Amino acid sequence: VKKIARYEGASSLWRGLSPTLVMSIPATVIYFVGYDYLKDVLSEKLNPIHKTPSSLATTHPLLNGTFVYEYRETLAPLLAGGFARTVAATVISPLELFRTRMQSVHTDTKGNAGLFRGVAQGIVAMVRSEGVLSLWRGLTPTLWRDVPFSAIYWVGYENIKKTITTWDKNKHTKPVLNEFEIAFTSGAISGMIAATLTTPFDVAKTRRQVDMMQPVHTKIMSLMRAIAREEGYRGLWRGLTARVAKIAPSCAIMISSYEIGKKALS
Description:
The chain has helices at residues 2-8, 17-46, 53-59, 67-70, 72-104, 111-130, 139-171, 179-210, 220-231, 240-265. The chain is mainly α.
């Protein structure tokens, strides 16, 4: 960070902010609204608690005693989180490619405006030579990273939140933690765990999007094996500290703000 600021100016630390802000709005709306809706639907489908015995018999004749029934509280956020992220990542993939390219090159004497034009021209040339589908270059490794991340994150968040809430109620006569604090803590812890487990996929995704010479059809597992072969298995966790340092507070702020906002608007 110090080296970038020294040689390229402090403003270069915010390189790619504009496309990040543009893509964050639709991505966040699709992701959170989609997750909440799908989780409610799946919870209703999998959870027979609020149904009458006759309704349960006709609606869930095969669920009782099965894996799906026993782990319904885990499966709902896992499936909802994974699917919602798949849709959101697909929609904003071209903007993600543009942002990654902007952040990966050095500024020149033309400044940020020249950088923006240079990256845009490079992407236009790529589309002309490789087709429109090249805008989704890196989508597969993005899904490899983001879908497991979201599944792990939401399962962790819901369970950690439930554990903290139960502990607070049992430990104190009057709960001392408010909803914001519980959501913030749960989001940070779950974000750290999910970020750590999915870092190899993030390394592969970034490597593929940055490398102009990387074939579009390169498979994620082949790319990860190549990284491990050339740099060792540590190479798959390159940037782990920075990734966790970014994602943990980001997840904490986003989910706590969303929970409070949703409660205020409901």
